[in-house]
Amino acid sequence: MTYVVTEPCIKCKYTDCVEVCPVDCFHEGPNFLVIDPEECIDCSLCEPECPVNAIYAEDELPPAQAHFLELNTELSKEWPVITEMKPAPDDAKEWDEVTDKLQYLER
User: Fold this and answer.
1) Where residue 28 sits, what CATH number does that domain have?
2) H/E element, 94
3) What contacts 26, CB < 8 A, 6 or more positions away?
4) Which domain holds residue 49?
5) Domain tally for the chain?
6) Tens digits of per-residue pLDDT, 19-68?
7) Is residue 55 domain-resident?
8) Pairing with 24, which of 82, 84, 86, 90 sits 20 to 30 Å away (CA)?
9) Is the pTM of this model over 0.90?
């Protein structure tokens, strides 16, 4: 099983989760993070660290977010690994509560 980054992360891209990951399974895109399902060891350390509750265990994904498993798999093959916490984007707080953000995902 893996953990999955979902829509709330788009345009927020807080990296608190990256800091606690023991296997460096996070990958960074322009405005979103993903988890490589092949590298994730299902340790669950990242989930409580996410300030916008964007990370779910694969078997607990809300139905409306299920397509993010495939998206994490795809983008983790394209984006570089991120291993250290970085400052959030300047406008991250403005996007915390916004829903339906998939159209804003930058690849």
Assistant:
1) 3.30.70.20
2) helix 92-95
3) 15, 17, 18, 33, 34, 35, 36, 46, 81, 82, 83
4) 3-86
5) 1
6) 999 999 999 999 999 999 999 999 999 999 999 999 999 999 999 999 99
7) yes
8) 90
9) yes
Distance CA 101, CA 13 (A): 12
Q: Is 11 exposed, middle or buried (0-12, 13-18, 19+ CB in 10 A)?
A: buried
Q: Work out the number of other CB atoms within 10 angstroms of the CB of residue 79.
A: 18
Sign of CA dihedral 98, 103, 106, 107: positive
Q: Which two tokens stand for residue 63?
A: 């139905």
Residues 25/35, Cβ–Cβ less than 8 Å: yes
CB atoms within 10 A of CB 98: 14
> Please, are residues 16 and 50 in contact by the beta-carbon 8 Å criterion?
yes
Beta bridge partners of 55: 5
Strand-pair partners of 5: 55
> What is the C-alpha separation between 94 and 57, in angstroms, rounded?
26
| Residue 75 domain flag | yes
Read off the tokens for 59.
Answer: 């078997």
